[in-house]
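Known limitations

Files may contain more than one protein. Parsers should not assume a single record per file. Below, a two-record file is shown to illustrate correct handling: read the sequence, read the token line, then continue until end of file.
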Amino acid sequence: MNGSARVHVSVMGRFHAFDLARELDRRGRLGRLYTSYPNATLARFGLDPSQARTLPWVEVSARALRRLSPARAFAAEPWLATRYDRWVALGLDGDAQAFVGWSGQCQASLRRARDLGLATFVERGSAHIEVQRDLLAEEFERHGGTPALPHPDTVARELAEYELADHVVVPSRFALRSFEQRGVAREKLLVNPYGVDLASFAPPSGEPPGFRVLFCGRASVQKGLPYLLEAFRLFRAPDAELWLQGAVEPDAEHLRRATTDPRVKFLGHRPQAELPLVYRAAHVLVLPSIQDGYGLVVPQAMACGVPCIVSENTGGADLVDHGRSGFVVPIRDPEAIAAHLETLHRDRELLRAMGSAARARVEEGHSWADYGRRAVALIDRATQAPRGPLGLVDGAGHRIREAS
């Protein structure tokens, strides 16, 4: 295969697949985008609708079920993923050299891509699905609530996809280690951290008042919400507030109901376009996830000059320089989080220095253009030597030394 592969991309939903497709298209490398999003919505994400094939009834059905009943949406997810996947497989052609499919929804299309002679990649945004499942099962034993574990059919599909694909692409060393722990060969695994829009996410002109601790994302047991609430209880600064920006998942609703501290504000969901304003009003972001393949909120907050406290089980641990642009803590350690909050609350000079260092960190290779360059370099090297060890590369295709 040549070194300038065209790439078909498939995703049920959006995720960061639209960012990948956009960056491939800017380089003349996108074959076709397959998605469940309606064709009329693609232009607002910087995509050319003429280069897409869409199956919007799947997206409409999934969203309607989520509004109607989370339980019914969970039960229907494997069925919808199977229908979407079969549709992609039927429409896939050989007018490309590589195929990238999103995990849990590309088993049939991977087989078809292999039959067409394409190099095949599975994008997995979280830990190995069995590691994710087991970590979450432990959490629900600890904290109760309605268990939210991956559907058994989804687990089976993903395991088959890991086997079928030439490569599995993950966004962080934490995710990489989870696959290695489950016996996936190192040469099959590629690492490419996601990007951030550095123009939209920028620091404020002045320092916000008070001391606001921000959590951003869907509040859930998986995101470490019990430990964040406990850390904030231990952090007794009267002028501090904890802002939880995002919907509360059903598995964490009992935690919301039990929260009586008036300093804790559940703000609900906001559109993506409004998030920069939320970050600029915060002093520190905390993401204490039990498992989180990357956590896009971390580079977004850092781009806004906000230092971050993240667990070691997030991709943010690759991005945050401990003690310089934030802090990395063990999972399930509210005392460590509280101690770092107290340090930043007490030392405003350190807080400002960390905010500046956070912005500088994401400016060094963490834009979406940087992500696109890395993706192209990985795909080109894989299509030339699909069984060779590739690892983490920079925008020029040079291997980056990985931390032990």
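...continuing to the second record:
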Amino acid sequence: MRLWPAREAEASPTVTAIRSPEGIEAERVVAAARERYGVMLSAGVSELTQQILRIGHMGPTAHPTYAVLALLALGGALRGLGARIDLAAGVDAAMKVADSAAAG
């Protein structure tokens, strides 16, 4: 999976946007994450509605552990829709970031 936009200088500090895998509409992923795991993700807007998945990290969800939970729900939803996802690798990478944020 790829971040969107690709350049960090253009990214938002309040949301992480990810391109949905080819052939899987973002709105289906959002619905599956909400239905299966009770986690709210968002699809893109306008022409990106079916291409972009968004994970918000503002207010109470600004803690790194919420990002890890969102990734778990995202990965589970994608797997349920037929995507080949290495969920363990994604969670491991997120935990490393969360650990470094907690350290300082």
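Parsers that stop after the first record will miss the second one. For reference, the second record is described as follows. The beta strands are 15-19, 42-43, 52-56.
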